[in-house]
Amino acid sequence: MTIKELHALFLEHPVICTDTRKITENCLFFALKGPNFNGNAFAQQALEKGAAFALIDEEEFKTSDRFILCQGVLSTLQQLATYHRQHSNAKVISLTGSNGKTTTKELINAVISKKYRSIATQGNLNNHIGVPLTLLSIKENTEMAIVEMGANHKKEIEFLCSIAQPDFGYITNFGKAHLEGFGGVEGVIQGKSELYDYLTHHNKHVFLNADDAIQKERLEHYTKKVGFSTKDHQYYNIKFLGVDPYVSLEVEETTIHTQLVGKYNFPNCCAAILMGKYFNVPIEEIKSAIENYFPKNNRSQILSKNGFDIVLDAYNANPSSMKAALENFSMMAAKRKTLILGDMFELGSTAADEHQAISDLAEQLNFNEVYLVGENFFRTNTSYHKFSTFENLKEHLSNHPLEKGAMLIKGSRGMALERVLDIL
Asked: What are the Mur ligase C-terminal domain coordinates in residue numbering (predicted)?
C-alpha cells in the first residue's frame, strides 16, 4: 500500500491508536515497537477491540486483510504524517527549547485559538512519535497547528522538521538540559538551532526573543524574522512589571496579569503575545487568553494545603530551570520558605558539579529549610538534609513534620516529587 493509498484510508478512519489500552472504534492501529515490547503481537487484540485496520511490519502476524503489512510501522507513521501535513491547509508553528516549551505552546494555542481553528501538541508528545501524531490530528478545517519539538541529542530537531515542515518557528531558550546527549551547552545551542536552520534554509518566518543574545546573533542577517524585546525598539516592545507571585506585564498600554509564577515565564507570555499580534488577534483577546491560562501537570502550579503555600514544579528539572526557580522563590514574599529538591537527570559527566552548584545556590539564597533528594544530591557537600531515596525523605518528614509556610517542590520527572503532597 502506498502512502497516498494509506492516507485515503486514514481519511476514512481519522483516529490513530498505538496503545491497545486506548483503542477506539474504527481507528487505525499502528503496531509500534519499543525496547521491551512488540506492537505486532498486540495487533490482533487491537482489531478485536474495535480497530478497523492494524499496520504491522512482521508478516507472521498477518492473518487477514485487516492487517496492513509495511516496511516499518514507525517510518510509515512518520511518512503518513508528512503527507497529511502537505495536503492540509493548516499553517504549522513549531517550537523547541531547553525550558518552557510546553507552557509556551499552550499559551500560543490559547491566543491563536481566539481567532483561528487550531490544534496543538497534547501534553508533551513532542518526539519522533508525538510529532507525527500531532500532525495527524489536523482536521480539514484546521487553520493553525502548534507543534512542540523535544530533543536530547543533535540532529533530532532537524529530523522532526523534515516531518513537520514548519512555516514558522520559535526557540524558547538555550539552557543546561540533556547535556549528556548534546555533549555540553554548545551542543544544546547547535541542536535546538536546527529549527532556525530549517526555517532560514527554506525562507520561512522566524519568531525570536531579541533579548536573548544567542538568538539575536544567530539571526542577525536573516530578514524574515519578528521579535519581541523589553529594550530594543527595533522589535515589538513588551514591558515586564513584576512577579508577586504571578507575572504581570504591559503591552500597548494594556496590563496583563497572568496566573504564572516566576520571571522565567515572562518570555513565554511574550512569545504568545508576539504571535497573536503577528496573526492579527486583537490585544483584548490576547489579554483574555493569557489571563485565563492556568498551568497544570505539576508545572509551576500554586497550591494551598494544610497551611502550606506550595509552588509545585515537579514536572521536570535541569540546571537552568532549577536556578531560575530558586531565584524566583527567593523573591516571593513569605516569612518562612522551604525547598524540597530532587535530582536532575541526563547530565552525564557534569552531574556532580551541577548538583553541587544548585546546593551552593540554595545556601546563598538563605532558605529556612532545604531537603535534597536523590543519589546525586545525596553526594553533595552540604549541611542540608539530604536523602538518597524518596522513601528516606518520606520517613524523615513523617517523624519530623514541616513548619507551615511557603514551599517550592522541584525535580526531574523521574523523581515524582508531587508525592510530597501526600506527606504534608
From this structure: 299-381
Residue 100 marked ligand-binding: yes
Which among 365, 10, 382 is positioned nearest to 373, based on CA atoms? 382
Cβ-contact 403, 335 below 8 angstroms: no
Burial track 300-328 (b if 16+ CB lie within 10 A, e otherwise): bbeeeeeebbbbbbbbbbbbbbbbbbbeb
Band of pLDDT at residue 390, cut at 50, 70 and 90? very high
Q: Does one domain contain both 283 and 339? A: no
Question: Side chain identity at 34, as an amino acid letter?
Answer: G
Cα 122 from Cα 139, distance rounded (Å): 15
Q: Is 342 annotated as a binding residue?
A: no
C-beta separation of 27 from 1 below 8 A: no
| HEC secondary structure over 192-238 | HCHHHHHHHHCCCEEEEECCCHHHHHHCCCCCCEEEEECCCCCCEEC
**Do 305 and 286 belong together in one domain?**
no
CB 404 within 8 A of CB 395: no
217 and 255 housed in the same domain: yes
Which H helix or E strand runs over 134? Answer: helix 130-135
Cell numbers of 247, please?
A: 507575572
The domain tally of the chain equals 3
User: What's the pLDDT tens digit per position in 68-125?
Assistant: 999 999 999 999 999 999 999 999 999 999 888 999 999 999 999 999 999 999 987 9
Cα–Cα distance between 358 and 352 in angstroms, integer? Answer: 10
Residue 336 and residue 281 in one domain: no
Q: Per residue in 184-226, pLDDT tens? A: 888 888 989 999 999 999 999 999 999 999 999 999 999 999 9
In a domain, 78, yes or no: no
- Asked if 74 and 57 touch (Cβ cutoff 8 Å), the reply is no
pLDDT tens digits, 44-84: 999 999 999 999 999 999 999 999 999 999 999 999 999 99
How far apart CA 377 and CA 384 sit, in angstroms, is 10
On whether 102 is known to bind a ligand per the annotation, the reply is: yes
138 shares its domain with 197: yes
Residue 296 domain-assigned?
A: no
Is 103 a known ligand-binding residue?
Answer: yes
